[in-house]
Amino acid sequence: MDSNKEFDFEAFKKQAIEGMYAGKPLNGEKGIFAPLLKHFLEAALEGELQSHLQEEKASGVANRKNGKTAKKVKSLSGEFNLETGRDRNSSFEPVILPKRQVIITEELEEKVIGLYGLGVSTRDITRHIKELYQMDISAATLSAITDKVIPVMNEWRTRPLESIYAFVYLDCMHYKVREGGSVVTRAVYNILAVNLQGQKDLIGMYVSESEGAKFWLSVLTDIKSRGVQDMLIACVDGLKGFPEAIASIFPYTQVQTCVVHQIRNSLRYISEKDKKAFMADLKLVYQASTKEEGYENLIGLEEKWGKKYPVPISSWYNNWANLSTFFQYDAHIRKVIYTTNIVEGFHRQVRKVTKTKGAFTSDNALLKLVYLVVSRISEKWTMPLHSWNLTLSQLYIMFEERLKPHLQNA
Question: Tell me: the pLDDT tens digits for 118-142?
């Protein structure tokens, strides 16, 4: 239908009614409403072009119409060829339907992004859309739709942060990404924080070739530049140089090395026949009532097992300063900070979705999916941690001078 001609609504209505009686669908590939949507869009685009040419003329720029261009458009009302007017200077940029856009339904795009965020494969998304809307969508189109997440994701990743956080958990996930003709490993660095209201928030998500204290240093520098002035307690795994990296950016932050990670690493050196007895003695170290009692029990552990297993015993001594931070607090705080289980639990939720992926096509493809999973998980982070009032009271006793400025500004 020529968009310059008046739309014959009566003829359309007659054809639509006949189509309905003939069993044609309202929407889909041969949808009854497709001609009406085509007319509305072409009329709107024609109006945009006329307005653009008038503005060009008013500003002294010589320009005029230069024929039409056509593209196949997919919509819930059907698929059709849409004609758009062109201008001689090629300066016309339509607003209602940009030049390269071929999908014109937010509902469909939300459906695609939602399925992608659940870890559904491109092939299965294509089949699902075909079943729902009788519409074929290529892998390139699906990628273009999900790429719309990237600006929102980047804005989220660089958003301003709160000035202080009570607890911060730093940990890493590893994935495979295609690069050129090979598959490489990527580390996704995540910083999960608990604010002064006791609510969780993923304040940082970064990707690098591998995990290392040097990159963690750049990550911490970034969150400081985004407004974080202080972190009371940082919970980390046993990565070498990690506490020093934190101290260089946040010198007053207490560091708690994950006790569970330390236990796992220790057991790697213990023979199967000794593990049960060794663990019984090791529990006396990290389940002690006080730091002093724990250290005395560590000495006892060394006296009993040191000659046979010097490596794990030495590791406990070398890391004792950061392994024993949690002893300063009551049981309900100890439970929260002695391990990085909070961020590891979050990672398990992410992996439930990402485990179906072999290797991602790019770093952006990896980050897109992780971001969409994070967005869904974080919707449930509305309540404070258990017994948060008691936790905050104890933190206030321990860190009164550091907390005061932030509580006054809150």
Answer: 777 777 777 766 665 555 666 776 7
